[in-house]
Structure formats: structure tokens, C-alpha cells
Amino acid sequence: MNFIIRNMQESDIQRFYEGFAAQGWNKPVSLFQKYYTEQQNGSRTVYVAASENHVLGYATLLPKDENGPFKDQNVPVVCDFNVLEQYQRQGVGTAILDQIESDVRQYADKICLGVGLHRGYGPAQRLYIKRGYIPDGSGVWYDDAVLEPYAPCCNNDNLILYLSKDLTAIFCESRRLLFQKITQDDFDAVAKMLRNQEVMYAWEHAFSDEEIHAWISRRMTQYDQLGYDYFLAIDKKSGQVVGQIGLLDELIGEEHCIGIGYILNQEYWHCGYATEGAETMLDYAFRILKKDKVVTTIRPENLSSIAVATRIGMTKTGELIKHYNGKDMLHWVFEKFSPMSGEI
């Protein structure tokens, strides 16, 4: 299903009211009118997942929490996050949170939210934990106050556990992988790849320690300048480093384009990680960064990488010569255009 994440439009008010009423939820028109008005005056941002003339779900973002444990700490808070039942388990909630976290990452190091404890919040609880949200340590809150041990309460929507997430390290994630910024502390993990001549065959040499430090420094500089580059791809289940996958600044002729790059440790070849990571970066470039086109450049003899590019829908559009280490290296250029171009 193709959809985009955008800010709330006035026409969404009635659409959301009708959508939630159809599934028996009591969300009055006045609630969505309030959200739209607050978005207009800048006190709240409303993120909407939409496809053509349909709304799929939404979440709102406040610049700081007015009540919970992060009150007066200027930590942005996600609140009232809902996906219509017919669109659940289709990646809509994940896409909304991806966009919110990407936006917040530009001005804050942390984001927080509260989640109810009854079973109706079960899917949300699982989603938040998988995304790296952790309890803040203040315990359970009830009616906007800390619930003291053994105090009576009702397991309703006002019984809340607050969670927060550190946004400084993790760039994004996929089903099996976390994509984390590389630092000099990751020297050993990066060196395992760059010292392996079979892994680095496209570069035609294994890297020295000095070259590895320079490689990492280049990644860190690009994070500061662009917000992205190669990231460590970490298996969520094992915690092992699978490789480096990311978005790169590619010069195609005289045009700077956003590109995809992937380098995997040898033991993780042919496990689908390159395709999964490349698809994630492609989606991030189109949906979060709003890019119209993504490219990748591949040596003609690199059949595995060509297969990955083809698998994610990229097509060969040209050739170029890259000058590296005193050599002229032929690369094929693959491109894909955003499926969202021209949509709402």
C-alpha cells in the first residue's frame, strides 16, 4: 500500500471522525478541530498517514510534556497515536513514528511518550519497545500523577507508563536491523570489514589502520553536514554487526544525488540483509527526506550488488568513471524514482 506522511489538513477532520466512528470509537469532531487549530497556531504538530483521499492514522507531537516525568524539560512528546483498525499491521504506525523521530532528531536528543497498560495498548507497547523506547524509571502514573505503591487505581486510559528514546545514535531501523551512527569507538567492527580484501574487492585493496580511522572520520563529517552516510547495520536479535549500509552523497556528472551503499561482513552474505537494508534506505530517502530520485553506483563485475539493486526496483541508466587510489574504475549507475511523486 502506497501512502505518505504529511501534516493535518482541514478536510481530515471529518475523515477521521467518520473513520473512528465506523469502528465504534468515540472521537468527536471537536477533538480533531482542536488538533487542527493547535497545528495552525504552532502549539502542536499533527502527523497524518494518507493515501489518495483516505486517512489511515495519525499522531500528534507537542514541544514538551505538560504533565508527566518530563514536564518542563523541553523533551518533545508523542501523544494520541492511532491507526484505523483496517490499516493496522501494514507499516502505517511505523511510518508515522519514523517521520516524527526524523523531525525531532533535528532539534532534540530525546523523545518521550506515554502508553496505557491495559491490553488494548498491547500492539503499541510492543512497537515502542522494538523501536528502542525504555521506561523512564518514574513508575506508573495515574491521572497525571505518580501512582504510589499499593495505591488503588483503575486500569483505564489514565493508567500510564512513560517511555523515552535516545535519538542521538540510531538513524532508523528495519525488520531485523538497527542502523547506528559510526564513531571511532566502532574501530574494531569497521576494521573487520575494511581489512578483508574479499569484502572490499570493489575498492581493490584492504585498508590500513590509518585508512580505517580516516574512513570513520569521513562518516562522522557527513553526519554533521548531511545527517547521513554509511551506518553500522546491527542485527536486532544477536546484537552483531552485519555490515555498513547507508545513504551517500553521489556525484553523477555535475549533479549531487542521494545514493545507497552497502558493505556486509562475509558471514552475512546471501542472507537478505543487503536487500533489507537497501530497501530501508530507499524508503527513508523517498518518504522521510522527500527525495524524488535515489541512485547507486556499482562495479560491473559486482553481480551480487547488481542483483540487490534490481531486486529493489532500480534500473541501469548510465555509466561513469570513478577515480580512486590512482585508478580509473568503471561503475554502472542505477536509479529509481519515488512512487509518491505527484501524490498528495
Please write out the topology.
Elements: E1 4-7, H1 12-22, H2 29-40, E2 45-51, E3 54-62, E4 77-83, H3 92-104, E5 110-116, H4 122-130, E6 134-142, E7 145-146, E8 159-166, E9 170-173, E10 177-180, H5 187-194, H6 209-226, E11 230-235, E12 241-252, E13 255-264, H7 273-288, E14 293-298, H8 303-311, E15 315-324, E16 327-337
Parallel strand pairs: 4-5, 13-14
Antiparallel strand pairs: 1-2, 2-3, 3-4, 5-8, 6-7, 6-8, 9-10, 10-11, 11-12, 12-13, 14-16, 15-16
Helix pairs in contact: 1-2, 5-6
Explain what the structure shows.
The chain has 344 residues and is an alpha+beta fold. It folds into 2 domains: 4-167, Gcn5-related N-acetyltransferase (GNAT) (Aminopeptidase); 172-337, Aminopeptidase, CATH 3.40.630.30. The chain has helices at residues 12-22, 29-40, 92-104, 122-130, 187-194, 209-226, 273-288, 303-311, and strands at 4-7, 45-51, 54-62, 77-83, 110-116, 134-142, 145-146, 159-166, 170-173, 177-180, 230-235, 241-252, 255-264, 293-298, 315-324, 327-337.
For the record, the count of structural domains works out to 2
Quickly count the helices.
8
Distance between the termini: 14 Å
Main beta-sheet strand count, sense and barrel state? 8 strands, mixed
**Percent of residues in helices:** 25-40%
Quote the average pLDDT: 93
Low-confidence stretches: none
The amount of beta strand, in percent, is 25-35%
Spell the H/E element sequence.
EHHEEEHEHEEEEEHHEEEHEHEE
CATH overall fold name of the largest domain = Aminopeptidase
Q: Note the overall shape.
A: globular
Care to count the β-strands?
A: 16
What does the radius of gyration come to? Answer: 22 Å
- Strand order within the widest beta sheet: 1-2-3-4-5-8-6-7
The secondary structure category is: alpha+beta
CATH superfamily of the largest domain: Gcn5-related N-acetyltransferase (GNAT)
The CATH top-level class label of the largest domain? Alpha Beta
CATH 2nd-level architecture of the largest domain: 3-Layer(aba) Sandwich
